[in-house]
Amino acid sequence: MTAKTDLSSTPDSLPSSPLIHDSRTLPRWSPWAFLGGSLVVATGLLALIGTPTPTGVALLGAVFFAISLTAYSARVEGRRHATDRFATTLVTAAFGAAMVPLVSLLWTVLANGLPMLTASFLTSDMVGVYGDIQGGVLHAIVGTLVITAWATVISVPVGIMTAVYLVEYGRGALARGITFFVDVMTGIPSIVAGLFAFSLFTIVFGPAYRAGIMGAAALALLMTPVVIRSVEEMLRLVPNELREAALALGVPKWLVIVKVVLRTAVAGIVTGVMLAIARVIGETAPLLLTVGYVAQVNADVFNGRMTTLPVYAYREWSQGRVGVDRAWGAALVLILIVMLLNLVARLVSKYLAPKAKP
Amino acid sequence: MSKRIDVTDLNVYYGSFLAVADVSLVMEPRSVTAFIGPSGCGKSTFLRTLNRMHEVLPGARVEGKVVMDGTDLYGANVDPVEVRRQVGMVFQRPNPFPTMSIADNVLAGVKLNNRRISKSDAADMVESSLRGANLWTEVKDRLDRPGSSLSGGQQQRLCIARTIAVKPQVVLMDEPCSALDPISTLAIEDLIEELKSDYTIVIVTHNMQQAARVSDRTAFFNIEGTGKPGRLVEMGDTSTIFSSPSKKATEDYISGRFG
Amino acid sequence: MTVTSPTRSPRTPAAASGGTRSRRRSGRGFYGLSLGAGISILVVLAAVAAFLLIEAWPAIVASREELDAISWLDASSLAVYIGPLIFGTLLSSVLALLFAVPIAVGIALFISHYAPRAIAQALGYLVDLLAAIPSVVYGLWGALWLQPVIDPFFRWLSDNLGFIPLFADYTPPARNVLAASTVLAVMILPIITAVSREVFLQAPRLHEEAALALGATRWEMVRMAVLPFGRSGVISASMLGLGRALGETMAVLMIISPGYLFSFFLLKPGQHQTIAANIASKFPEASGLSVNALIATGLALFTITFAVNMLARWVIARRKEFSGAN
After folding, report:
1. How close A156 comes to chain B (CA, Å)?
2. Distance between CA C17 and CA B113 in Å, rounded?
3. CA B254 vs CA B88, B185, B236: distances in Å
4. Per the confidence metrics, is the pTM higher than 0.90?
5. Do A187 and C306 count as a contact with CB atoms less than 8 A apart?
6. What is the pLDDT of residues B167-219, one digit of tens each?
7. Among A244, A251, A261, which would you mutate to test the B interface (most chain B Cβ atoms within 10 Å of its Cβ)?
8. C-alpha–C-alpha distance, residues A171 and A174, integer Å
9. Which residue of C26, C39, C212, C217 to mutate against A (max A Cβ within 10 Å)?
């Protein structure tokens, strides 16, 4: 055992071995070799008892890999290095494990949803659809966009102004209280937000009232804390020097906030709002309780039930048969909208950001 | 375009902590007054009270009088925003607005206040202010480029142009060269020399050579220990302060025998 | 120096012109707006509690006969009805937490200390992508993809470890609480990972380098310098994840075959139900007092998640104070 990396070696063993001479580490490529070998062995073993499936090979291969590499390393490099290699394997495997749902989820949605993604699916609603007629999601797309837009209209001004208060004005107990309750608000379950919107409108307009605005109110409740958090973060990134420079020019504080602070942070704010929208646009439960489901397009947010993509997907799934296909189609449309929002958010932040270099 | 400032018995507090105590001094128009002293002696804090910028920090307050042109800047009816328009400030690190072009940075005082200005007036103002800051020839061909595209020294002169575009009576400078290289520093010092024919200039500096080069009068601030307030030790003509200071502490500091 | 631009007559600061006064008003108006927005957050949160309580009240004070009239409420009182729901909610969430926390800590370590710097951020983005997927899609995925995939594993569990009551009596399809918790675990993975990653990245570099300089392997460095530092962060991250899992509706609604029992048979269908999924399944058809009863269960859920989140935030806040003192 060489002395360089082993703390447990006794001092008298030190002089005899060269100081930096460590032939007893595995070469860099050895983990890859072990991985390949483990996968081959796993495939072989599974082939002996049946047909090897990718999941089986991956699982068994990972187990073989962890055991064989650790054992070999323990023999060659010593126990401490073996533990290190084992930990590295576990940590990497954890990441791999998280990729399984992500990849399989995106793959299933694409595989099942793409065949549904026809022009007629996107441009027709569910009026008069029965049996194996494909039907469409137009009413759900309209509903989702309208309701989310209203939720944005409600939550963004409140969110931005609250963030402005917390960053630029707020001190003392009130600001601390608001910060704390914004955090708590982030944790409100979406279904509770739905119940709140339902209760609110029931108390004000009576139990029979149904309108898209109820859903928008529920979504706004979920969205506001997210907007506050991200805007707050962005405002704190604006250097204090800019505020002082503007104040020293004799600009009143509120104009400094509007024209310097908010202007400098606008890219981050827009990005944050987009991501907040992306978060609530897929909400199902609160809309199920308040806005419900209807077969035709309804763009009037103050009157009558509206269909949204998530509720549509849930409802069609629960109807079974061709409904399941429609559900996948709607899920794909929904994910595409979310991805589009994420993409736009990134582009916006790229183009609106202050340019340091011309 | 240039006013005298009289300070009498000024105390500056952060919360209950007395940061600067008992300062009384006069800053003459059309001259450069330099504040020198060791770190933490309160000279920057004191400078920021002259245009009420210290109020930006929570808990900061002031006792005493700062009189400019017969008006106490801390009088009950005085709007700090108006004070800052009369008493401009240049900061330690150049801080042009990153979202604005060079020209817009010069016009920032006008534009940020939502005031309208005709195109030709704006062009005149940009040119005269940039000329005033010795920057015109360097940037006249790229006025629409971002202010942050300039070098550090140019950025600092842009900040000075931005300050004088508002036409203040007084220009405060808080270690304006500490973030700059020696050549840029020289350019700023030359500029200060020119500016003093139009403005009352007050500069805080750590560089005693600089104080000796640019200022007409020098005030030495000192602090007795941590937790104690900073005080004005003495003030006089720069030549006197540097050649024959009346106080031992000043002499120690100037001859480098201090911390 | 000559100044050629339009000259403003020198004004003294005291001359509070009309312009100054209107500017001051705008300033105060803007401050008022931002203050109002901040206060509205407190008001809304209070309103959530108040409106839920108002709407739940009729069910809370209803007599046994009135409750009996609700077709699905087969219990002597509201409390007896809510009991198994709370149990189901807690059980599914705690199971999800048990699956998610070790994996999330692993991912967070992988991104903060193991992955190459150049791609670490991209990998983090991949995990964040999991958070961007709508819950109904998780429901579809769980009900249609995961159930057949997880089925052989449950069979094996039931056949080999069935002598432990927890794993006894698996009946396919996999519409049991363990399957639902698996999906919940995936859904709360991103938040736990994100918070843990932040904490691990904040681990003092000096300690890490000190450990490495002593000849520690990477894992020993992580164990000595990173994990102790991040412990409270991981705890609060887990509680935030727990809060999410408690309130998640669709995944449970679309996977679990509901039952209203205090049961530990994790692989048996028809044993458990969560508050959120129960509301979502019954609410669209409910009317009259049954709506109030469902809102009462929602109030219970609100209280539980509120408590969990407050606790999590309190842990985080306390940690901040500690690190500030150092």
Report:
1. 23
2. 15
3. 29, 21, 14
4. no
5. yes
6. 899 999 999 988 888 888 888 899 899 888 889 999 999 888 889 999 999 99
7. A251
8. 7
9. C217
Sketch the domain layout of chain A as residue ranges. 11-108, 138-352
CB of B114 closer than 8 Å to CB of B143: no
Topology at the third CATH level for domain C62-325 = MetI-like fold (1.10.3720)
Fold of B5-96+171-254: Rossmann fold (3.40.50)
A207 residue type, one letter: P
Domain residue spans of chain B: 5-96+171-254
A16 pLDDT more than 80: no
The crossing angle, in degrees rounded to 10, of helices C117-132 and C177-202 is 140
CATH topology (fold) of A138-352: MetI-like fold (1.10.3720)
| A174·C38 Cβ contact <8 A | yes
Predicted ipTM of the assembly: 0.86
> Binning pLDDT at 50, 70 and 90, where does residue C321 land?
low
Identify all chain C residues contacting B78, using CB atoms and an 8 Å cutoff.
13-14
- Chain A residues whose CB is inside 8 A of the C123 CB are 95
A87 contacts in chain C (CB < 8 Å): 218-219, 222
Per-residue pLDDT reduced to its tens digit, B109-122: 888 887 788 889 89
- Residues C51-78 have pLDDT tens digits of 999 989 988 888 877 777 777 777 777 8
Is residue B108 within 8 angstroms of chain A, CB to CB?
yes
Residue A333 sits at the chain C interface (C-beta within 8 Å):
no
Task: Report domain extents, chain C.
Answer: 62-325
Which residues in chain C have Cβ-Cβ distances shorter than 8 Å to B85? 13
Backbone Cα Rg of chain A: 29
Distance from C-alpha of C278 to C-alpha of C275, rounded to nearest angstrom: 5
